[in-house]
Every structure is written in C-alpha cells, then in structure tokens.
Amino acid sequence: MPNNRLAMKNLIVAAAVTCSAAAAAGAAVAESPIEAPGPLGPLRGTMLGPQPQSGPVVLIIPGSGPTDRDGNSPAGVLANPYRLLAEALADRGITTVRIDKRGMFGSAAAAADANAVTIEDYVADVQAWTGVIRARTRASCLWLLGHSEGGLVAMAAANGTDVCGLLLVAAPGRPMGEIIREQLKANPANAPLLAQALPALDALEAGRRVDTTGMHPALLRLFRPAVQGFLISAFSYDPARLLAGLAKPVLIIQGRRDLQVREADARALEQADPKATLVLLPDMNHVLKSVASDDVRANLATYGDSSLPLAPGLVQSISDFLAKPP
Q1: Helices 225-235 & 176-186 angle (0-180, nearest 10)
Q2: Cβ-count burial 49-83 (b if 16+ within 10 Å, e if not)
Q3: pLDDT 10s digits, 17-38
Q4: Which of 36, 58, 83, 211 could pair with 70 as two cysteines, CB 3.0-4.6 Å apart?
Q5: Cβ atoms within 10 A of the Cβ of 202, count?
C-alpha cells in the first residue's frame, strides 16, 4: 500500500464536511432497485449514486441480527445509518449498494430460515452481489464496507478478485465468542448467569451444539437452538487472522462512544494489518451517530432517531480514502 495511506494512521478526525466535486458540479443522483441470485430466491437491495456512474462503487454489508438495508432493525434501531451514509457518499460521487440479508426483509425468499444462514452463506452472497454490481456498473472492482458483523463478512470475502479493498466500520477485531464473553462479564447483573453462559460459549467455540433445557430464560435469546449453527460458524472466524497478509487497501473506522465494539478491536485489526489506515472518531457510536458524553441512555437514544446526522468525520474519512490512488 502506498506510503501516503500510512500517513493517516492513528488519525483522530475532527468535524469537517466539504463540498464534493459531484455536488459542486450538480451531478444527478439516482436510486434504483437491484437484485442478485440467492439460493432459493432473489437477494434484493438498493443502488444509489451519481449519474452517469464513474467513481468508486461500494457494497454496504449489514451488521448482526435482523438489520435491513437502511441499517434499521425491529429490535429498536431506527437510525437509518446506511441510508444516510449512502446518500452522503452519493453526493461525493460514490455509488453504493445497500442490501437486505439472506432470508430477511426484501431478501426473505432467498432462504427458508434466516436463522440457519452462516457466515459462509453471507460470503457467497457477497460474491453474487459483486458479480451483479460489476456487470451493471462496469466497475473493475468493488469496495466492501462492512459494519459490525458485516465487517467480519467483508474480511472473509476480501480475497475475491473483484474486491478493491475493505472499509471496516465498527468491525470486530477479535473472535465473536471472545467479545460476547467480555460483554457478559462486564455487566454485574449477569453474574448469576455466567455459570451457564460461559460453558455454552466454550462448547459453541468448539463446534458443539448446546442443550438449552433448563437454561435461564435471559440466555435463551442468545443461545436458542435455531441460531446455534450460525454461532458455531461465526465463532470459528478470527478477524485478525483474516486481515493478516491481505494485499489490499484497508480502512478501519472506529467510534470511541461505541457500546458494542471497542477501540481495542480496531487496534487488533491495525496490528494484524499494519498497512491499514486507522481512523478513530471521538464521538461516534455503534449506529454511526454522534454522542457528546459517556451517558449510556443518551447513547442508546440515538438508536431510534433517524433525524440525527451521521457522526462528523465518517463520510469524509471514507471519501478521502477512496479518492487516493490504489
């Protein structure tokens, strides 16, 4: 990777939003539906970008759980982070495709059971999407922007010949089982649950399913049998190992107000790929919004507020990185 990328390492980005060349030129921006083949039915998404398309093309890979193409979830996330990001990038001449995951929302027909999908399945879907998007845009390659769990999928799919590089936003830097174990231990209220939770994590990490008979109800959402296949798949991946030795440009963006993924994860990714560019945004949380304090309630309140803008520095960091020569 060229040395001019290395100069951005460890950068703490301040609030700076500049007028893009596309916006200044008054380029038209168009949104349209797009489909890719899935195993049982179509995968569906939305393409948004300047017309005519000529700049970078980015595939936005959603985070964990029932997260839709706009970054929202019936679990209480209504912040529209992916839609806002796509709109902001389009104003800077960057085309995006944001997608519904296999078995969910617009892609519901692609799988009989969304819970039975694995990381390997999501990687196969990324490969299907890159082929369709390249044919439609005539781009030589695509950038994979993975948010949260989507960052793990992006890393697992990074070696494809049609992948330009990675944009990892709030991506895990350690195996998922390790992160969940840390989160459970960090909350004192979980102390009575650890005697059941920790052995269950150990078993799933070893590739064994867990008998949930008699398990505390508070743990069933995490360990219910329907999702254990996915957990076994996800736990088998080490993000740092996936990133080590990758001969492609990588941007790592992490918010310091993130309650779910920590700066330590970003640092682990940077250590695995010292050529990567690391950007730390002081006030960005997990749904890519700005939070002014360490107040957890204020942080969580942003998850349901689509009117809030994206955290300062996020869009600029991505557009600046994509503007650099390969």
Answers
A1: 120
A2: bbeebebbbbbbbbbbebbbbbbbbeeebebbbbb
A3: 333 444 434 579 999 999 999 9
A4: 83
A5: 13
Assign 3-state DSSP to the chain and report helix, strand, coil percentages, each to 5.
Answer: 40, 20, 40
Burial-class residue 7 by CB neighbours within 10 Å (0-12, 13-18, 19+).
exposed
Rounded-to-integer distance, Cα 169 and Cα 46, Å: 20
Spatial strand order in the sheet of 95-99? 11-12, 277-281, 250-255, 163-169, 142-147, 57-61, 95-99, 42-51, 28-37
User: Closest Cα to residue 235, out of 175, 304, 311, 174?
Assistant: 175
Inter-axis angle of helices 81-90 and 314-323, to 10 degrees? 50
| Whether the Cβ atoms of residue 242 and residue 269 lie closer than 8 Å to each other | no
Average pLDDT, the chain: 92
CA 139 to chain centre: 22
Q: What is the pLDDT of residues 99-148, one digit of tens each?
A: 999 999 999 999 999 999 999 999 999 999 999 999 999 999 999 999 99
